[in-house]
Design goal:
Keywords: Acetylation, DNA-binding, Fatty acid metabolism, Isomerase, Lipid metabolism, Peroxisome
Shape: globular
Catalytic activity: (3E,5Z,8Z,11Z,14Z)-eicosapentaenoyl-CoA = (2E,4E,8Z,11Z,14Z)-eicosapentaenoyl-CoA; (3E,5Z)-octadienoyl-CoA = (2E,4E)-octadienoyl-CoA
Number of strands: 9
Strand content: 5-15%
Strand order of the largest sheet: 1-2-3-4-6-9
Structural class: alpha/beta
GO molecular function: delta(3,5)-delta(2,4)-dienoyl-CoA isomerase activity; DNA binding
Largest sheet: 6 strands, mixed
Family: Belongs to the enoyl-CoA hydratase/isomerase family.
Order of helices and strands: HEEHEHHEEHEEHHEHEHHHH
Pathway: Lipid metabolism; fatty acid beta-oxidation
Length: about 325
Amino acid sequence: MAKNFAEELGLTSFKASEGWLGKFKQRHHINNGVLSRLYSSEVPQFETLAITVPKKHVFHVELNRPKQLNSITTLMWKELKDCFESLNDNSECRVILLSARGKHFTAGIDFNSLMQDSSKAEEYEDVARKAKILEKLITHCQDGITSLERCNKPILAVVHSACVGAGVDLITAADVRYCTKDAWFQVKEVDVGLAADVGTLQRLPKVVGNTSTVRELCFTARKFDSQEASELGLVSRVYSDQESAIKNVLETAVTIASKSPVAVQNTKKSLVYSQSRPNEVGLEHIKLINQAMLQSEDLKKAAIAQATKSTTEYENL
C-alpha cells in the first residue's frame, strides 16, 4: 500500500488539459501491448473514460484520469451514466470489461469537485433548500453507479492497486470482480465525515454475504488487501499483475459474448431483480420474461449447436 497515498489523492490543483493532441494520443494508447484498439463510429467517446473494442462484441471501459489517480469528478459521474446507458442500447456490445489506466484503479471521490458542488448549498440559509441542492448532487452520483446495474450487459471489473471509497461503490455494482495481487480496498467514507451514499452500504453486504465483516470495514474504514477480498468473496480471482488480469478476463468476456445475448441479458435482468426480493417474486419475474423469450430463435440455434457439438452465431440484440 502506498505510504504517501493521501498526498496522491489530488487535493492540490490539477494540471490543465494537454489539449486535443494529448487526448488523441491517450485515447489510442496500447495498454502494455495486451489489447489492440478497434475503433468505429459506434464506440462512444468521453473525456474521463476511454472506450475501446478489443474483441468482437466486447467493449472495454477504462477510467481515464490517471494523473489524478482516476478520482471521480462531477463529469465522471455523468459520463459513467451516459457510457453504460449507451452501451446498454448498443446492439454490438454484449459484454463490458471495466478497468482503469494509471497507477491506481481509483482514489475515490475527487474532493475538489465534491467541495465545489456541495458549496452551492451554502448559498441558502434555509435547511430545506440546502437539502434540495444536496439531494440533487447525491442522486447525480448514485445514478452514475447504478447505471452499471441497470445495464443489461454483463460487466467484468478488474481492479489494480488502490480501490478507495467510491471505487468500492463502483465495483459492487458490476457483475463480476477480479483484482491484482497488489490491489487493496477501503470503504473510506467515515474517515471524511460521511456515510457512504452511492451504493456500498446497500450492495457490499449482498456481494460478500458477511454482514459482520462488512460493518467492521464500513465503521473503521480500514484497508484490506487482495487476499482478504478473495476470502470474503468480493473478487472471483486474484492475478499477479494487471496485464495478466486483463488478458485472462478478456478470455472470459469472449466466452460470454459467444453465448446467446437473449439468454445472457435476461439472466442478468433476473439476477439483479431477484437479488433483494423473495424467491417467489423472482420466479414470477423470470416466468413473465421467458413467456416471450422462449420463442426466440436463439433457443433453437443453441439446441442445434448443443446437439451437433458445433458453434453458432447469434444476431445482435
